[in-house]
Amino acid sequence: MQTFLQIIANGLMLGGLFAIIAVGLTLIFGIVKVVNFAHGEFLMVGMYLTYLLTTGIGVHPYATAAAVVPILFVFGAVTQRLLIQPLMHARDEHIQIFATVGLSTALMNLALLIFGADIANTPNHGLRSQIHLGPVRILEGQLWIFLAAILLVTGLQLFLARTNTGRAIRATAQNRAAARLMGINDRFIYVLTFGIGAACVGFGSALIAPLYPTSPTIGTYFVLIAFVIVVLGGLGSIPGAFFGALIIGLVDALSGFYIGSDLREAVVFGIFLVILILKPSGLFGTRVSQSHVSP
Amino acid sequence: MRLSFIMATAATAALITGSATADVKFGALYPFSGQLALLGEESARGVEIAVEEVNANGGVQGEDVTLVRGDAVDNNQAIGEARRLIAREGVKAIMGTYSSSRSIAASQVAELSGVPYFELGAVADEVTGRELQYLYRTNPTAEDMGRMSVQMIVDEIAPALDKDPSEVRVGIIHEDSSYGTSVAGHQERFGEEAGLQIATVQGYPASTVDMSSLVLDLQGRDVDVVMQTSYQNDSVLFLQQANESGFKPAAIIGGGGGYSMLPTAEAVGTDVIEGVLDVDFTQYTVDPAYAPGMEDFVETYREKYGEEPRSGHSLNNYVGAMAIFAAIDGAESFEPDAIVEAVEQIDIPEGETAAGYGIQFGENNQNERAKMMGMQWQDGKLVTVYPAEAATSEMKIGQ
């Protein structure tokens, strides 16, 4: 029984970790309608920034979020403005996807050039110490990630639901042409949204860096599972990404123990397929607006 | 027919290179850019030092050796670069390759052109054993890695635990690409032959971000020894999560990759990695009496590159290259068959190379005397602990 509870706790903590990465992705996916294959590399950039700031000035890794989040915001906004936007009117929209694949490869190799293939260790400032919660034990850093994920999801939901900018973002996602007619600057909204999506992963990277060694390929470890979560939760749904992440985390932990570590990916992706067949729009998904196709 | 072939080749070479030089060219085919660049470059440095030493001592068959680099950044380019080295540069033989998949691809090209290919660093079983006539391998393989880790359990760990080998429970975990799977397969086979209790064999993807379930599983099976074949990320993850779950097997034996590198120790903390064992190529903490020339190598390396060797790859490539050059020096000519004939005669006993292991090619042109070394993290340093004749420190097992 104790082992079972420990596995559940491990799964939830893993889910929190996945959630904090997937939230930014689903935002970009749902609003800008761009499949951002460079999302994992945004995480990598954020983790290296955290590493450099933590070792360079010796601050607590969480404090670096104050710098990493704005930097990633600008990075995301610039990506949208200079890379995606010029391709908005390309003959085939898939070109945007290939552009993000190109960005991903370029960033990974740039990191390889600057930092080399070796791992970089962000000092963990005690975040790997254990907390006992009843019969289970988890890492302090994992708990913070989990709580931060809840905070981030709630905050974004409130922002989208209650503020004027948030409403404009949702309006653009629902019907771009109509939003333009209402006087919303859709290009600005896309730049802003891409920036916010990147900032979310920047926030996550400040929390993740002290727990995981950073390497140029670290993004690829997370990005595939993040895509699965986003599709599972429903494209563009922020609560969907959160609960999708928890489900994937739990399935991963349970199948890793009860079925075998070599089969857990098969189980995760098997369940993913079953859910998609039963509910093609994802758990929290609604029908995707095609309005962005209009000029 | 043979003569006409030679004349044709010579004519082509003369056409391409313009004028013939007195130097003899050899190819160095390694990944010099891309993901594997760090250790590819490190491996090539060993060959470069060997070439310098050979040239300082009068060259090979009286001619200076020129090393021509080929960048095997991926399998396709490995093939392209092998072709270039053979056809345009006219190299007499190719040395390489660090990466097994690139070695397998490029050596096919060399074989078809009838140019000898010397593998000095790739470990996969499949590199040899493809019935290639011109491929020879000097370095130890995945099979040697499996054999060595089981020998350590039987000879040292079981006695230290006061157990018969048949009472030792072993858990084998490995990343699930061909590297981890083949080493784990050998560990299982040698382990069963030695009568160990193999409690479980489990693969996992190297890109995993959580190994807590695997740790809980091993904990539940009550294993004495864990053997892990892994890259760096998963080595760090396993050691950290095992430590945090309070899982303390009597011994953890890592296989190469991440376990030999200092950044891994820094990532998990020197107190956590203390006592962890590792099977890998000969490193620099081996007993100098067992590896004569190793210290001179390190000194030359420092002078030439202005830093410490970054891993044992350079040493192992150096040892292989030195043996091959020495053999070719005694050959009748640089004709492929003359080279092969001379290489077949190599007979260097154990304890007489800078990497410790001897060299003699046996079945499948694999060096039958190649050996991995058993090492242990002690006080933040990786020291050689097995076999006894190579060891600089005692193996410490149990509390």
Automatic annotation (TrEMBL), chain A:
It is a multi-pass membrane protein. It comes from the Bacteria. One of its GO terms (biological process) is amino acid transport. The chain crosses the membrane at residues 12-35, 65-83, 95-117, 143-161, 188-212, 242-260, 266-285. InterPro entries: ABC_transp_permease, BCAA_transport_permease. Keywords: Amino-acid transport, Cell membrane, Membrane, Transmembrane, Transmembrane helix, Transport. It is found in: Cell membrane. GO terms for molecular function: transmembrane transporter activity. One of its GO terms (cellular component) is plasma membrane. Belongs to the binding-protein-dependent transport system permease family. LivHM subfamily. This is Branched-chain amino acid ABC transporter permease. It comes from Roseivivax halodurans JCM 10272.
